[in-house]
Amino acid sequence: MGNCRIQNIKPPCGYRVEGIDLIRLLDFDDFDGFKFDGDDLYNNCLVMAVLRSGDFVEVDSPDTAKYTSSLQNGIYTHTLETFIGDLSAELEATLHLATKRRYIVLFHAKNGRYFAFAYEAGATVTYANQTAEGIGSLVTITATSIYPLFEATEEAVTQNIVNVEFIPDFDYGAYCEIK
């Protein structure tokens, strides 16, 4: 067994930039798994590669986009909210379709770090249209999970790893071989 003791819980000193400047969704059907740092499972929370067969879709992320997470009874609820300043037939059709699918969510915080959630079952998308306080749609992306928020390296977000073969391993379930 490894060292399971907490070393410290303190942020780096200095100015902290707030907010989100990039949101990307990957259809859960195109998601083949995460490759974690040191080929560990999820215990170090650092994603080195997103194994996928499809492309990410970018979602509008103005300065008001925000992420929240809560933990209750061992279940995390991850929520990402953004406001899309448009109300049109094209956007309505796209949002309606998005509510029928599940997604892996990646976002880039203004502090320079990438994060991911919805690892085991994908996240759902809901939306609400409005014409007060600005015309547009409030889009909410939510996932419940036994896993915390994962940090992702920039390479994990930008590289396209395809041709992944899952090889059964009776001791650990399955592992991936990148071809």
Question: What key phrases describe this protein's structure?
Answer:
single chain; 179 residues; mainly beta; 7-stranded mixed beta sheet; 13 strands; disordered C terminus
Please, could you describe this protein's structure?
- This protein is mainly beta.
- Helix content is 8%, strand content 47%.
- It is built from 2 helices and 13 strands, in the order ββββββαβββββαββ.
- It is globular and about 50 Å long.
**Helix content class:** under 10%
Distance between the termini: 31 Å
Biggest β-sheet: strands ordered side by side in the sheet: 2-3-11-8-7-1-4
Mean pLDDT: 83
Q: Report the portion of residues in β strands.
A: over 45%
Question: What structural category do the secondary elements indicate?
Answer: mainly beta
Regarding quaternary structure, how should these chains be classified? single chain
Task: Provide the fold topology.
Layout: E1 20-27, E2 31-36, E3 46-52, E4 57-59, E5 66-72, E6 75-84, H1 89-98, E7 103-109, E8 114-117, E9 124-130, E10 136-145, E11 150-152, H2 154-158, E12 164-169, E13 173-178
Parallel strand pairs: 3-11
Antiparallel strand pairs: 1-4, 1-7, 2-3, 5-6, 6-10, 7-8, 8-11, 9-10, 12-13
Quickly describe the structure.
The chain is 8% helix and 47% strand. The chain has 179 residues and is mostly beta strands. The two termini are 31 Å apart.
